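[audit] Reproducing an earlier prediction to check determinism. Same input, same settings, fresh worker. If the tokens differ from the archived copy the diff job will pick it up downstream; this log only records the rerun itself.
[audit] input (853 residues):
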Amino acid sequence: MRRRGKTGGKAPKTQHLRTLKRRNTPSSVAPNEVTDAARLTRERDEALEQLTATLKVLQIVSASPDDLERVFQSILENATRICGAKFGTLYLSKEDGFYAAAFHNAPPAFVEARKNRPLRPDPESTLGRVARTKQAAQVLDSRKREAYRKGDPFVVAGADLGGYRTIISVPMLNKDKLIGVISIYRQEVRPFTDKQIELVKNFAAQAVIAIENTRLLNELRESLQQQTASADVLKIISSSPGQLEPVFEAMLANAVRICGAKFGTLFLCEGDDFRVVAQHNTPPALAELRQREPILRVGPGASLYRSRETKQTVQIADLTAEPAYFERDQNRVALVELGGYRAVLSVPMLKDDEVIGAINMYRQDAGVFLDKQVELVKNFAAQAVIAIENTRLLNELRESLQQQTATADVLKVISRSAFDLQTVLNTLTESAARVCAADKGAIMMREGELYRIRANYGFSREAVQYAVEHLVQADRGSATGRVALEGKAIHIPDALADPEYQATGYQQAFGYRTILGVPLLREGSPIGVFTLTRDKVNPFTEKQIELVTTFADQAVIAIENARLFEEVQARTRELAASLEDLRTTQDRLVQTQKLASLGQLTAGIAHEIKNPLNFVNNFSGVSAELIDELQEALKDVSLNEKRRSEITELMDTLRGNLDKVVQHGKRADAIVKNMLLHSREGSGEHRPVNINALVEESLNLAYHGARAEKKGFTITMERSLDPTAGEVDVFPQDITRVLLNLISNGFYAATKRKAEANGGDYEPTLAATTKNLGDRVEIRIRDNGTGIPPEVKERLFTPFFTTKPAGEGTGLGLSISHDIIVKQHGGSIEVDTQPGEFTEIRIVLPRAALGQQ
């Protein structure tokens, strides 16, 4: 085994070169070839080192997208090391100069002189030349530059404090915009190579990428933060409909946090003033003042006033620099002192281009709110308007729903109590008073020229007695009298302030101030008056007046209903009976027409299909005979065994195919026949028949038919026929056909289960029962066969659906049975089954024929 070096790995490069020299004698390798090999090795190692440094920086950029300091340090460290320099500096360009963003291995005095301050370099310095040309600039000896000899402070201080001689500065460009400079320094006079300069350029590009990534990441975070805040507010709006307080609190909390503000307030306009409706993080002294005095009067200098007047966002970066803000308003000075704020942002809340409120953000330090922050508050202001509008609409909806519910309740009472007019009028009075927030209500009915109380709500016993004893005249001295005279709604906001109001006895007895009277009109003439009153001066709204008018109309309807109810009821019963007869006749006509049309259509189809089916069946049989003859003829033909075997196999296959054609042709023929039966118009006339005799006859016919069709067929027959079942008016042939079909299906299922049992203890059984149901009769056919799976049961009465093997069923039997029982006789047919145990068909037939029930 070859010895390894101390490291346990490959031999060092110098040892490798010595070995290479020893192996290549002077006679075979020239000295310049050895030099070239060493150069290539050195260039390879340099390229590998540069690539490794680049990858290291890229890893840091990808691993720490928002840690620029770490990225800058890595860039300077690798650039300084690979370029064989003493130290490096990374500057960022801003409007007022360059700022040192990172240092590597720089002398402390140099760092202290250049950090945390704007640098305005000499135009001929490397930094100045890069700023002017946006190209890399190199100085071989900084102490021989003109600027150094002239004593430029920037150049002299840098050279003396940093002790550098040779310097290279490379621009950091983003789309031709200078965003920074990387400077690498040597303390000896030794120029940087082109490769080293290219390396620094590469690092500069990576620094630009890192800065751009950080900017994009910060923008993404800000955007995500804003979107999350908006989503949170929208979630609260959707989850708390009609509740503005949690919505406003969420808005202010998010706005204050994202805008970097101290506290926030939401105001709503109240006339020319503003009302504080929500606060977040407000200093306690100011918060207490605003709770105690929520109405805020603002003058022309205030941001709230200016935002309302201009309908635009207003922000004041430093209140102390705006004397007009405090001019003629000492109260505003007190507010600022309590809140301790210097900067304020006011964003108006606009609805249909009208200011309905504002959101204010406050900072305790001077400064301008960023455009993104302003846009966020604008978005919250729009959401606040939406929340307010949603709440308004929801309240209106609730009010409307409340009114509709009250109306529906009244209509329900009217419909249920058509003979009890007093109950209807009492309900109307109470519902109207509750929905309209009235303290009392009454319905006054006309008796000659006077009006007497008929229903009331909220009246004391004494008040009711007073109203009974004091009828109201049709004059302008009372609300009821004015309504009777004018035939329209009368609204008196304050009875004590109305000069025409004379019914002081009523006012004192009932204690009301606001009165609303609405006429009960029949053919344009008042037959009564609906009145609502409030104990305090509180006028009714237009919607409430409209609602009471609706209740008045309903009262008139109720009164008319009481008079006409019997006539309407009698007429309704007569029409209902006629309508039922009409529907029954119509159903029968439709069914008859359908069956007739289907019969004609099916007859034509059967005629057209029958001939080709006969052709297929006949020629299939002939073809089978021809195959036999062909096989017989081939016996005399000389063929080898293999060819004869192939021909025989082909003829057997052909014969099998012809058998299948015959089989399916016969099934098609059966389907055509059943289609004729399914769609025929009828089977004679309906007549009364003894249902037990019909069931007994069907059982016998089905049993003997099964025995004749299948030798050895046997099944136990059980009968439980109700002696009182009596007669049913039906089409006997069709009902027999249904019973035969159901019984045959029962035979089939029981026989199939017996075959599956393979001689076990299973005994096939079929039971038939009848039962008297009064005006109907029930027939049940039950077998203990294989049962029906659920998925098959769902399609049991679908035409042409069958689970029997080909040639044994057409899928029309149960469909025909369903139409005969349900459509032809107006009965019902149901299936109860358990797979592997039983199937029971239940038929219920009306005793009277369809159309005579």
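[audit] rerun output stored. Observation attached for the diff report: Residues 542-633 form the longest helix (92 residues).
[audit] end
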